[in-house]
């Protein structure tokens, strides 16, 4: 489900989901893994 909907939505609003800009881990816009949803919420509400 995430790949079909959430990833596509965040790409559409301009997030660098796959770190195409090559940022270091601490500067990535999206962190994949166990903490992904928490990171997304912080990005939205910060």
3D architecture notes:
The protein has one domain. The protein is 46% helix and 0% strand. The model has no long low-confidence stretch (mean pLDDT 76). The chain is mostly helical. The chain has two helices and no strands.
**Could you say which structural class the secondary elements and strand pairing correspond to?**
mainly alpha
Q: Got a strand count?
A: 0
Strand content: under 5%
Q: Counting H and I runs of at least 4 residues, what is the number of helices?
A: 2
Mean residue pLDDT? 76
Proportion in helices: 40-55%
N→C terminal distance: 25 Å
Low-confidence stretches: none
H/E element order: HH
Largest beta sheet, briefly? none
**Computed CA radius of gyration, to the nearest angstrom:** 10 Å
Domains (count): 1
Shape: globular
Topology:
Blueprint: H1 2-12, H2 36-45
What's this entry about, in short?
Helices cover 46% and strands 0% of the residues.
Which short descriptors sum up this protein?
46 residues; mainly alpha; 46% helix
